[in-house]
Write a structure and sequence with these properties.
Blueprint lengths: L1 H4 L2 H12 L7 H14 L2 H14 L4 H13 L3 H15 L3 H13 L3 H12 L5 H14 L3 H14 L4 H13 L3 H14 L4 H13 L3 H14 L4 H13 L3 H12 L6 H13 L3 H14 L4 H13 L3 H14 L4 H13 L3 H14 L4 H13 L3 H11 L6 H13 L3 H14 L4 H7 L2 H13 L1
Helix pairs in contact: 3-4, 3-5, 4-5, 5-6, 5-7, 6-7, 7-8, 8-9, 9-10, 10-11, 11-12, 12-13, 13-14, 14-15, 15-16, 16-17, 17-18, 17-19, 18-19, 19-20, 20-21, 21-22, 22-23, 23-24, 23-25, 24-25, 25-26, 26-28
Length: 456
């Protein structure tokens, strides 16, 4: 890899460009330079190298094929098509050209034409693994997992240790709901390639998805025996123990994982969740605090501390950590709802209004956001503002609860006529709510008979 990054040809080319010199490069050398830039994702330099190369070797078909590839990367499809048509007669026995043609049609959303060019490429008996994967990908685009499976398997025949092909074979089996064939195939593969990390990972995932957690753990253990540094596999193994309710075992796996990690905040968070589920709140808090020491902005641990403190009856601390979590992730509506709830529980109604206002602004389609917002406004005596909110709410939510609330506000403001109109609407929508609403809003007891009499 180091040799790739320290490519002498590339260094010489860049020195030439930088110093405005003119060095001579063979066609093959320009190809190598262009390939380097394409693999590095530096398309502008690949384009530059192509132009320099064609200036010196204007008739080179190989460089024109590279130019075709660069044009596709730059999404210059009209120019790419023109060049494709120019090269067709002379390059139909060039695998790279046929691959570019396949990419052209694939990028333009014509997978069947793309497959035709890949099949022409297969006749040349070069790059079979790549071409079968390409064809399989196009069948995936056509939503044909059966044919995709066939070609991913063929790709594996040409490169038995191709992780991409193997992963997609299992994905196709999953789409086709052929679980028996999938595990038979995987076991057969593992008989031949017992040290395949990808295969053991797929084995673990296969059984995890079928809730056979003991067998999944076996797969992950084999993988860890092959590569003990596979950090993500520890997380998968721990997830198996979590799914089984084996919280202490899950914690042990996460602790092994900590030794391999540079950033530990998420793992401490997961350990905290396990302690929480295991009814060990003090240890859970300790883990969440370690998570925050590793990353003070890790709001997930902030909010989990809030939940634990609430369960312990420490509402002041619960509110504090909920506020901290919301300040770090204001767009999370669930957090806003929780903070509003804690404010209301603590009798801090005015503070809750900030959260409730944000909820009706960001999630106006939810009726209960409006209901809670207007309820709190009434609790603090802001009946005029509650009327404004409720009028807005009833434009999209024709719910009896809102009209009962609205009638109460009007009665509180001595607008008897509007109050009775709103109460009449509420009774029409749902008279069964009246008893509960009368307990909440005593003014309704005095007015309901008048409204019913008027209706008669």
């Amino acid at each position: 890899m180091e040799e790739f990054f320290e490519n002498e040809l590339v260094e010489k080319f860049e020195a030439m460009v930088e110093n405005n010199d003119e060095f001579y490069f063979e066609t093959e050398e320009y190809e190598e330079i262009i390939i380097y830039y394409l693999e590095m994702g530096d398309i502008s330099f690949a384009d530059m190298a192509t132009k320099y190369g064609l200036k010196i070797h204007p008739n080179s078909l190989d460089l024109k094929v590279k130019q075709f590839e660069v044009l596709l990367e730059l999404e210059k499809y009209p120019e790419a098509k023109e060049l494709m048509n120019e090269l067709k007669e002379s390059c139909m026995d060039n695998t790279d050209f046929l691959v570019c043609c396949a990419k052209y049609y694939s990028n333009l959303g014509n997978p069947r034409r793309s497959i035709e060019y890949c099949e022409k490429g297969l006749e040349l008996e070069e790059e079979e693994n790549f071409l079968h994967n390409f064809i399989a990908d196009e069948f995936v685009n056509l939503e044909d997992p059966f044919k995709a499976l066939k070609h991913y398997k063929l790709a594996l025949n040409f490169d038995p240790q191709d992780e991409y092909s193997l992963e997609n074979v299992m994905s196709c089996y999953n789409q086709l709901k052929r679980s028996d064939e999938a595990i038979e195939f995987l076991n057969g593969y593992l008989d031949k390639f017992a040290f395949s990390e990808t295969a053991w990972y797929e084995y673990g995932q296969f059984y995890f998805n079928r809730k056979n957690y003991e067998e999944a753990i076996k797969g992950f253990d084999y993988l860890l025996a092959i590569n003990p540094q596979s950090v993500g596999v520890y997380a998968n193994k721990a997830a198996c123990f979590e799914a089984m309710g084996e919280w202490s075992k899950a914690i042990s796996v996460y602790e092994e994982m900590l030794a391999l990690e540079y950033t530990k905040s998420f793992t401490f968070y997961k350990i905290g969740l396990c302690y929480k589920e295991n009814k060990q709140p003090v240890l859970a808090l300790n883990s969440f605090q370690k998570s925050l020491r590793d990353d003070p902005q890790f709001y997930l641990s902030m909010m989990e501390q809030s939940y634990v403190y609430e369960e312990m009856g420490a509402m002041k601390e619960a509110l504090h950590f909920a506020k901290e979590a919301v300040s770090l992730n204001e767009s999370n509506l669930d957090y806003q709802k929780r903070l509003a709830f804690l404010y209301i529980e603590g009798g801090k109604f005015e503070e809750s209004l900030v959260c409730l206002k944000r909820l009706v602004d960001l999630e106006p389609e939810r009726f209960y956001n409006w209901y809670a917002y207007s309820e709190v406004l009434m609790l603090i005596g802001e009946f005029e503002e509650a009327v404004n909110v409720l009028v807005e709410a009833t434009k999209s939510h024709i719910r009896a609860e809102l009209f009962y609330q609205l009638s109460n506000c009007y009665f509180q403001l001595n607008s008897q006529k509007k109050g009775r109109e709103a109460l009449a609407t509420a009774l029409n929508l749902d008279p069964h709510l009246l008893e509960d609403m009368q307990q909440k809003y005593p003014f309704l007891k005095e007015e309901v008979d008048k409204v019913k009499t008027k209706k008669k």
